[in-house]
Amino acid sequence: MNKKILLEKLKYSKLIIGDVGETLDSFFEINNPSPIGAILFDLDFYTSTKKAFKVFLNKEDKYYLPRIHCNFDDVQTIESIGERLAIKEFNEEHKYKKIENSYRTVKEGIKNRHRIFEFHNFKHKDYSTPLDKIRQDHLKGTQAEIQEKLNDDEVKIY
Length: 158
Prior knowledge:
Blueprint: H1 3-9, H2 20-31, E1 36-41, H3 46-52, E2 64-72, H4 82-93, E3 97-101, H5 103-108, E4 116-121, H6 143-151
Parallel strand pairs: 1-2
Antiparallel strand pairs: 2-4, 3-4
Helix pairs in contact: 3-4
């Protein structure tokens, strides 16, 4: 990876390099991100995936949508190793937070659906609120108005 070239290409994102377990310890405090709606996990191993699940443990709902789409790149194996084992253990350790395959993707016949999971926080204050009713003011307006909001740093995208 050429860090300099990658950084030059990023317009709305921030690159955070480091051990995922360590960088997540201060991620919310330092970055104060907009609500997370999707996470792409490309960590390959059990230990790094397990550490990455710290992202789901912040107690403030403001950092999350009640359901978060997750993509895991190395789940085409048994549930006793790698990313699948980390997912299984997370679910066993958390009564009201779960990461599971989305059966909607099976019904809709989506390619690579075995990689698509959903994180659900059953205790999230908006869990029972229809998604179209959740406040998304930053997404309202013309494309130019939304772009201006993004440029003004009103909305943070990571």
